[in-house]
Amino acid sequence: MQKAIFAIFTILRSKSNPLILSMKTFIDAQKELFPDTLATCTVATKTKKCHYSHATGEFEWYSPAQIIKSATICMGSIDLDPASCTLANKTVKADSYYTKEVDGLTKAWVGNVWMNPPYAATLIKGFAEAAASKYEKNEYNQICILVNNCTETRWFHRLLSVATAICLIKGRLQFTNKHGLPGGTPLQGQCVVYIGKQADLFCEAFKAHGKCLYV
Predict the structure, then answer these.
(1) Kind and range of the H or E element at 4?
(2) Residue 106 Cα to chain centre, angstroms
(3) 162: helix, coil or strand?
(4) DSSP label at 140?
(5) What is the distance of C-alpha 151 from the center of its chain?
(6) What are phi and psi of 34, to 5 degrees?
(7) Model's pTM, two decimal places?
(8) pLDDT tens-place string over residues 139-195
(9) Which of these CATH numbers, 1.10.10, 3.40.1000, 1.10.3470, 3.40.50, describes 65-214?
(10) 163/179 Cα distance (integer angstroms)
(11) Contact residues for 5 (Cβ-Cβ < 8 A; gap 6+)
(12) For residues 62 and 91, is the Cβ–Cβ distance under 8 A?
């Protein structure tokens, strides 16, 4: 192995400034020494691209019915969905909902709230902050929030700062797309964050979907 690495860098030094080495230069060197390995890497790259084909660029994915059912059992009702539309509310069945044209971030949130916010990074931060700050102001009673398990983000930890329980969903959910049809399965796993005083009821209602933890 050491001889192979030395051979590659010998070729690199003969072709390029050793301080400015491009990936193409490295692959050319590898091709000279290990043509079979290069073919394997090419196949792996193609496979990876196929894996990422599930990422459509859409950020409006509507809530699965089985998750809504558990949220309704937990909270007793869904009074408001602040990030919704007519199609999505056919499943959620919230008493009231705000569309993107209305802008739920600027409106009052009341009662028992369900939220599956838009997953675009520029939008979800605002909804996470609204959920946390509005609860701290006692604006609504409780909320179930379906989000990606983005544990590395600030917005996710902002939710956890006021959450009382969380369900780490097993596998990956199949959402409904904007045409009302079954959508693709997202690349990332999901969780439901609960903010409210009924953490026990939440864990009981969601235990079939995955591991429920108190926060």
Answers:
(1) helix 2-15
(2) 24
(3) coil
(4) S
(5) 10
(6) -135, 70
(7) 0.71
(8) 999 999 999 999 999 999 999 999 999 999 998 787 666 666 666 666 789 999 999
(9) 3.40.50
(10) 32
(11) none
(12) yes
Return the structure tokens found at 27: 């692959």
**Gap between the Cα atoms of 112 and 90, Å rounded:** 17
Tell me which amino acid residue 185 is: T
Pairing of strands 165-169, 210-214: antiparallel
- Least confident window among 20-24, 35-39, 110-114, 131-135: 35-39
Residue 169, phi then psi, degrees to nearest 5: -70, 135
- Tell me the DSSP string of 165-210: EEEEESS----B-TTSSB-PPPSS-EEEEEESS-HHHHHHHHTTTE
Instruction: Report the sign of the C-alpha dihedral through residues 52, 56, 57, 58, in that order.
Output: negative
146-215-74 Cα angle (round to 5): 50
Q: Where are the domains of the chain?
A: 2-54, 65-214
Cα–Cα distances in Å, from 160 out to 10, 39, 171, 194? 52, 46, 21, 9
β-strand partners of 143: 113, 195
